[in-house]
Amino acid sequence: MDNASSLTDLPARADRHIGDTFPNRPLRGLVAAVAGSRGKSTVVWMLDAIAQAAGTTRGCWASSGVYANGERQAGELGPWLRVVQGIRSGDLELGIQELDAPTTVAAGLPPRSYPLAVLTTLCANNEACLVTPETQLERRALGVVTQAVADDGVIVASADDFAVVELVRHRDVECMLYALSRDNPALQRHLDAGGAGAWLEDGHIRLGTNAHFDDVLNAHAIPATLEGKLIFQIQNALAATCAATLLGFDYSMISEALATFAPDPDRQPGACNIVHYGGATILVDAPTQIWPLRMLARGIRHQPRRRTIVVSSTFPHLRLEDIADAGRVLGNLGALVLIDIHGADAARLDALKEGIASAATPAVVLPMSGELQAIDHLLNVIGSGDVGLILVSDPESALGHLWPAPAISVSSRRPTQEKRAS
User: Fold this and answer.
1) Are the C-beta atoms of residues 130 and 170 closer than 8 Å to each other?
2) Looking at residues 126-146, what average pLDDT do you find?
3) Edge to edge, what strands does the sheet with 308-312 contain?
4) Are 341 and 314 in contact (CB under 8 A)?
5) Which of 49, 56, 222, 287 makes an SS bond possible with 257, Cβ 3.0 to 4.6 Å?
6) CA dist list (Å): 146 to 101, 140, 157, 264, 337
7) Can you give the pTM of this predicted structure?
8) Which of these three, 204, 229, 258, is where a domain ends?
9) Partner residues linked to 31 by β-bridges
């Protein structure tokens, strides 16, 4: 978008405002779609947790598979068709569908069919990200999703991502926007026009209109946010709060569910999973672009800690031109960076080391001959008050080593660690 004024050019429907009716406007008996380049899985599972807390029967199609009332089903397309049939027959009350970009673009979506869609983010206003082929595909997918929303449906969208606001402007349907601040220009314009939204204020998630809003819950109480330090998880909670309210769930159910929510390693491997070990906090993530890594690092820098220990691959999914930037991010974070060099591309490894060395206070770098060996070393040296960050290319393998109980390989174990790790 060209200038700040255009960011606020989101027309509110003059004939109908969610703010007038949303407390009494349940949208159950439908499939809610969730899309975006980052955060969609977390929003899906937040909504599932809220529905579970309310005792709602539901089906969910997420990146890890199809679930019926929380139970994983065998296969995907067949079970999802049964979920849709169950919603139509009244056996299930709600369906939640995570939409990935390649499938959405290739297969399309039935037009004007979804009563509710949630759009999380594209690139969080990162200009370099916006021009990548992956983002262009994601933008096309979000365009397909907006066109699949029914004329009397609702789009929940991030006002913090200007590209998402631009996409929403092209559909004349009701919107509920969310942002980290009420001063966000798109959200402010939307509220001034009578629309409804959600925002963060004084540490609380607030939802409503200019005329009336409520405190729904303290964002710092959501385990996934690390006491409010991970702002991208707060944004996910804002999105889920908006969608859940439209689905007819009351604030007590939303608060109860989110107050215990953290990404499940089985259902969301590598989605900023949180593991506690010996008084330390370990985060496990698998970023495929540079901007989520920066957001994650920003949250860790604001987390009280004795020191930070990082386990990292050479980022096989990142563009080569972004590797040095990733190294600088890690160098500014870690007192110790453990790099998995097994099978690493030489150019990527050199760029990563160069980036780490360019940090204001360069970290100590230790090469490791495998991801699990690096994790073993982290578990051996991490202590109470430390923060560990494990950036993996194979989340399932790493989490299998860490969760539900971290276990150090026998060959890497120090004698003093054996009892604690067992």
Assistant:
1) no
2) 92
3) 271-277, 280-285, 387-391, 308-312, 336-340, 364-368
4) yes
5) 49
6) 13, 10, 10, 29, 42
7) 0.90
8) 258
9) 95
Secondary-structure breakdown of the chain: helix, strand, coil percentages, each rounded to the nearest 5: 40, 20, 35
Tokens at 44, concatenated: 């899906």
Encoded amino acid at 119, one letter:
L
Residue where the block lists tokens 């049939």 = 85
Helix axes 371-381, 395-402, angle to 10 degrees: 30
- 225 and 332, same structural domain? no
CATH number of the domain bearing residue 186: 3.40.1190.10
Note whether residue 2 is domain-resident.
Answer: no
Q: Can you read off the two tokens belonging to residue 171? A: 């559909």
Task: Name residue 72's beta-bridge partners.
Answer: 67
Same domain, 225 and 182: yes
Domain endpoint, select from 230, 258, 286: 258
Whether residues 395 and 316 fall in one domain: yes
**Residue-number span of the structural domain to which 286 is assigned:** 271-421
Pairing mode of beta strands 280-285, 114-119: unpaired
Total structural domains within the chain: 2
Structure token pair of residue 70: 């929380």
Tell me the per-residue pLDDT of 336-377, one tens digit each, with 9 for 90 and over. Answer: 999 999 999 999 999 999 999 999 888 999 999 999 999 999
Provide the token pair at 65. 């598979």
Q: What CATH number is attached to the domain comprising 352? A: 3.90.190.20
User: Residue 284 and residue 300: Cα distance in Å, rounded?
Assistant: 12
Residue 293, both tokens: 């890594």
Instruction: Please write the tens of the pLDDT for every residue from 293-347.
Output: 999 999 999 988 999 999 999 999 899 999 999 999 999 997 899 999 999 999 9
**Assigned domain for 396 exists:** yes
Q: 119 and 223: one domain?
A: yes
Query: Does the CA dihedral 94-109-233-197 come out positive or negative?
Result: negative
The dihedrals phi and psi of 131, each to the nearest 5 degrees, come to -95, 0
Looking at the fold, whether 41 and 102 belong to one and the same domain comes out as yes
